[in-house]
Structures are given as C-alpha cells and as structure tokens.
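Quick illustration, no need to memorize.
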Amino acid sequence: MEFNLDYLFYAVFAIVAGSFIYKLTKHGGFRGAMFGATIKNTIGEVSGSGPKLMSLSMRVHESDGPREKAVGLELVAKSLASYQMTPITLSVSEANKLTVLIDRATNGKRGT
C-alpha cells in the first residue's frame, strides 16, 4: 500500500474544519468561537475614526467564560472591499486597567 499525501491533506483539513465547527456550536456562533466563550450580553459599541473610506468600531461584550476571560472587545474595521474583526479577551483586572488608562488619556474628563 502506497502513502498518498492527498489523504493527509484531507485529514488535516477535516480536523481543522471539525474543530472550528465544534467551537461554533459550543460557544453559540462565530463571535463566541472567536472569543472562546459564549457571549452573554453586548454592552455597547463605540465608533472611531480611521483612514478615509474606512469605518472603525469597537464593541464590548460580556462573556460567560471563566472570570479570567470575562470581557471581550471586538475591534471591527470595514472598508469598501474588506472586513476585519479582531477579538480581544480581557480578564476583569485587565479591563479595569484599561478603564484607568482610558480615563488618564482623557485627563479624567467625562463627555457625552
């Protein structure tokens, strides 16, 4: 019996696809699979400015993962021909540090 590399390629592809499908079903969808936890609640969204013809936004999610993975940030960059989503998972203490840093960057000024 001869070893065929085509079968190895199909086997690796099936394992990777199966793993992703398992994550999709376990965590309740694409976003949950990207964060590695089920999203309980989307807290809100903030739009940002970027290069021309591109829109940027950041969504904040509450996940039901372990306490060390309780906050999810979803950075979305959209343009005419592309869509990019970057998931960032933070622990509660990391999220608190980020809050302090943003507060310091705005000099403690609160706006609407």
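Residues 5-27 form the longest helix (23 residues).
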